[in-house]
## 1
Amino acid sequence: MPADTDLAPRLAASPRTVRTRTARAPRPGRVAGYVGLVVLAAVMVFPLLWLILTSLRPANDVFGGGLIPRHISLSAYVRAWTELDYPRHLVNSVGITCLTVVGVVALATLAGYAFAKFQFPAKEAIYVVLLVTLMLPATAIVVPLFLELRSLELLNTRQGLVLVYIGISLPFAMFLMRAFFETLPDELIHAARVDGCGEFAIFWRVMLPLARPGVATVVIFQFMQTWNEFLFAQTLLQTPERHPLQPVLYSLVGEYSTDWTVLAASLVMTIIPIVVVYVRMQKQFVAGLTLGAVKD
């Protein structure tokens, strides 16, 4: 009986309590890693924070005060919305970007599925030729595209700009979609064929829903690329009323002076659509980036 009494305190001590008592302090390497990540995050966030705070400053207090503005003013947003004809150019950007994203996603999914699951003559040669176009810098093809659109009477039109965006963006999107479709098992296609599905039905009903992470990745990349593109929009659209936002924002940078508050306010409003698209498709995007990281 006394022996049982002596063992009672030991039995009462749970493993969790023992682990808590013997918990070791964080390792210096891990603490240094956390500190480095915090510093890196601060460095990355600071330009965006400065941009937002600058857009809230009065026009005469951009570089004279501290980081936090002494007076909050929304006049820069009002001026950017009215003086730049911001709504018109915002509609232009939204229309051009949405048409480009739809066209690229539609063609890239079809082409990626064909290159991943079909066998046809010169398949690898065609694929390599398409990938080689990714190595061409934009400045090397802007003049040939200008001449080609002029010969097709599509110069200075939004339709011509959308076709250019689709043409230059399709190889990379097709490359991504082929990689995603290659991760899907061929047994699904064979089973669908046994059930009597046609090739397009297999693509639309079976394979494409499983490739949603890849589609989300293409959508986000393509939306950001088209929304922020400047060179082709500035060169191929010669009428100011048809310009998207990027050429208009560049026009605010003067040779001798720049209205930094209006420029900052315009940039903040321009960032919002990209943030909205990313937040809406964040889960699929992360899944698309991690797909294939773990293999069976």
## 2
Amino acid sequence: MRTVLVAGSTGLTGTHVVRSLCAKGHHVRALVRRSDARSQTLVELGAQICIGDMLNLPSMRKAMEGVEGAYFVYPLAIGVVEAAIVFAQAAKETGVGHIVNLSHKQATPDARSQATLNHWLTEQIFTWAGVATTHLRVTFFADWMLNISSQIHQGRYVTPFDAESRVAPMAACDIGRIVAGILHNPVGHGGKIYPLHGPIECSHQDLASFLTQALGKLVRYEQVSVDQFVKLIGAGPNAALTAHLAAMKIDKQEGRLEGLDSTGIGIMGQLLMTPMQFIQQHRDRFI
């Protein structure tokens, strides 16, 4: 079995990557900034905790010693390009065989969002480094619904996005399984860019309807400003997130997050979670 480093291991996708890789019998090194209750959960899954700093090259060299595969993910914050440089350099020096990089669906050199442009730049960095890398350009996360669970309690599906803008929401657990699947068997995935979508394309009005059906109560679509939305989810003030969501709203209007694919099913060997299944799985969070 392989030794795999998982960055962002306590985050939205990282925990699922750790769980899936441990279940496959791999030696998982979970990168964390500090030891706490969240990292203890990873230990219980079977991972080895590695305390490190993604912006510190000596720290990452140490974290990658003996590692054959690695998962790179970074929060929506300043520093992703520098972190990618450090990650790629450490991987190259220590002989890491394969990296999976979590990017944005709309990552292009002309991306409207600076955060998305930075993710496109990270793709270039890993390519320049010469380490075999799979870039996952992921669409809208179904898990964003959890950020507005307190509003859904009140019968409001609150979003800054237009009612009819379309996406195929993807659950973080499925993304984690796909990342783990590639790291488990990286043959044929090096140098590939995979746009990833959930199994059903729908509008935000549709998502409000799915919530209504699953929860047995009326949940109305309600559009608010980006600033209002950031405050409602308790993330403000956050200039980077606000700017990204404002750009993402236009990207959605232009159809840049639309689409479907079969890549995830092929890698996981199982069906992806639908929005309705996601809501039902997290029903206790919504009522």
## 3
Amino acid sequence: MIPRFYDVTTGSIKIDGVDIREMRQDQLHDKIGYIPQKGVLFSGTIASNLRYGKVEATQEELNDAAAIAQATDFIAEKEGGYDFEIAQGATNVSGGQKQRLSIARALVKKPEIYIFDDSFSALDFKTDSALRKQIHEKLSDATVLIVGQRVSTILNADQIVVLENGSIVGIGNHRELLENCPVYYEIAASQLTKEELA
């Protein structure tokens, strides 16, 4: 609903006090870096994909975004590095690589709001953890929304909203929800160790 793929049926979504329905679509989209669950790449080079939201981005900006997205190593291994040509349908990169390049592309844009729509799902736990640590450190001046199935992905969020069948059943941080939200506790207990639940 934030990028207005769907409009709210009741209430409103506001950015800096302005109802998003009163903004021009291009204005709204300039404020948002949206990373869907399935990373989407375009035909062209890795560099042209990363510059999609900011055509004038410098090589240093590409490097910084790739580092945060945990993409530096595999880009270096590709023939030509940033000049590596992405095949149609991105068939010459893995799901995890596609995901990290999609994340890096949003990071190059430097929007006010990042929406990670279950976009860590194709990543292994080690990469997921490293990426979240970088996001926490480097994007402290942005609003970061993470939609996630894994509790570990959202564990350290300032605020977690728990949904069940499209309804909000809990709002709070990890500790608060463990104590006050049975649905969250059940999900967390199925995924985390006893130490993490303590």
## 4
Amino acid sequence: MSGMKRNLVLVLAVAAAVATPAAFATNGYFQHGYGVKAQGMGGAGVAFPQDSMAAATNPAGMAMVGAHMDFGLMYFSPDRETTLVSPGSAAGKYSANETAYFMIPEFGWNTMLDKKMSVGLTVFGNGGMNTSYNRNIPMFSSITQDRAGVDLMQLFIAPNVAYKLTNSHSVGASLILAYQRFRADGLDNFNNVNQSSGVGSVTNNGYDSSTGVGVRLGWTGQLTPEVTLGATYQPKIDMTKFDKYKGLFAEKGDFDIPSNYAIGIAVKVMPKMTVALDYEEIKYSDSKAVSNPLGPVSAFGVLQNTLGTSNGAGFGWQDITVYKLGLAYQHSTSTTLRFGWNHSDQPIPASQTFFNILAPGVVTDHLTLGGTWKLGKEAEVSAMYTRAISEELKGSGSIPTAFQGFTKEANLKMQQNSFSLGFGWGF
């Protein structure tokens, strides 16, 4: 078997193992960064490719990476909590941490066909709408043992190609094969003809899945030996519908992956130090299931924007801007240290905390550190720690009048810790 065929067999085997991402929340439900090295720099990587995970951020960087294979595993521990504000019969704190941690793998492979063109495969995931409450939430279900919670997972398998236009400029493209699965529990009070257009397809139906195909395009260019720029764009990915939840999500179970774009700059401020800055826009308004607001509610607690319809009540998420600032310092020939900060807008308005009890992705700031240590000429190990700073979003007019016998407001709180370990090989 040729070296290329052996590499492809290994790539497919590892991709199959990686195809089980867990759900989590960072920049809304997008990761704060992809690849252990970029994650250690606050996620910055549009103009600073460091390994074969670069295509998840900007596929043009793969032509600069060279022949490389990378595997990473993240231990992710989010702390989710809802406080239902007194007065009201349901007032009190509710923990959403029945599932306390997740293990999240990722994989990248890249090879050079010649001095100008690379081909690769990058496998990664998103998530974020994950909650598993320790007790029943009365507004959502009248069944005492019916615990509310949702779980969204997204997997992306991205074969990619990049081409060096010159020694300093490259372009790239990824074909994105997207898979997602979802389940919802404990929403029995909305599983009726007054609340939903699809009774029986609202809650407690186990996992359902959907698929879609998209692209990501990118460019990177070194303007001077010290300054590199980059840009990347991913259009909205149209996904097949969650049929088991066509009575929950707007547009009869549609849950598209929003468009996003980013620009970045990397500056070598000293011979051993590079500072990278990314600016990213995530358009959650592309998905009505995510962005539709709760809308008006009658005096009897009936949603006027009936679940499952085109204008059906949703989570009310807003488009967000994300800033990623990272620093890489080559401490020695075998050691590189990294630091970063990631800041995003708040995707959830204070008026929309009611449904977001199920999806409290409210954190907006992450502090990161990491490093890489060479084990020999070709092998290396990398590590990363991220602290998502505790954030509380206090509801303001979030509970419709008809539900205020249960609580006056819903306040959401979240913080996160994550650790990643990665291994890389040049070949």
